[in-house]
Write a structure and sequence with these properties.
Helix 3 (71-79) links the parallel strand 3 and strand 4 (90-94). The chain has helices spanning 32-41, 48-53, 71-79, 113-122, 135-140; strands at 4-11, 15-17, 64-70, 90-94, 106-109, 128-131, 147-153, 161-162, 173-180, 186-192. The strands form two sheets. The chain has an eight-stranded mixed beta sheet with strand order 5-4-3-6-1-7-10-9. It is an alpha/beta fold. The longest helix has 10 residues, at 32-41.
Length: 194
């Protein structure tokens, strides 16, 4: 069974962006040390245009071969004219409003999101599935998430978009590892308790 991993950046107080989802205030923490970590351990989480610009487009995947993202996350790329932001992965976009995919490499999941995720998890393969936001999508898939990789940046937003846009749902995870960076960022990895 393949793992679904929610790989997400957040503030100390658990917000992944401002109330509208804008996370640009966190970009300043992706310094040389942090970027080296991402490029070495999670290269597939860097969008294809970014991989090309820094010369790691040929770097093999370490953890994932598939990505699922929400419509709002996908729209960020579309606004830049990028229809396949993670061309090095199998791409799925969960959307009830995007009627047709603008790219043959991107499959739209319009209904039965949980069923599609369960089918992807049941596939044979050495790599997992990267859940790339956003909040509502993570909330809908909370019961399917096997692992959390939380990049916590040393800021407090006070309010904003939560990591999980869902109702009250106590869900237990256990801490696997913590990595600290000189700039105060942390990367915590948790496994779901089943």
């Amino acid at each position: 069974m393949r793992k679904l991993t929610y790989f997400i950046a957040c503030s100390i107080d658990g917000f992944i962006g401002d109330p509208g989802g804008d996370a640009t205030t966190m970009y300043r923490f992706v310094d040389e040390e942090f970027f080296e970590f991402l490029g070495t351990e999670y290269p597939e989480t860097i969008a294809t245009p970014g991989r090309r610009s820094i010369g790691i487009d040929d770097r093999p995947n370490q953890k994932f071969d598939t990505i699922i993202q929400g419509r709002a996350s996908y729209d960020i790329a579309l606004k830049e004219g990028i229809t396949s932001p993670y061309a090095h992965l199998r791409e799925y976009v969960a959307s009830r409003t995007l009627e047709e995919s603008p790219d043959p490499n991107v499959e739209i999941i319009a209904d039965d999101l949980v069923g599609k995720v369960r089918a992807l998890k049941a596939e044979d393969g050495e790599f997992g599935i990267y859940l790339c936001g956003g909040s509502v999508l993570a909330g809908e898939l909370l019961d399917e998430i096997d692992e959390l990789v939380i990049k916590t940046y040393p800021i407090v937003l006070g309010t904003g978009m939560p990591m999980f846009g869902s109702g009250f749902a106590v869900t237990d995870f256990e801490l696997d590892s913590v990595r600290t960076f000189k700039n105060g960022a942390l990367v915590r990895t948790y496994s779901r308790k089943r």
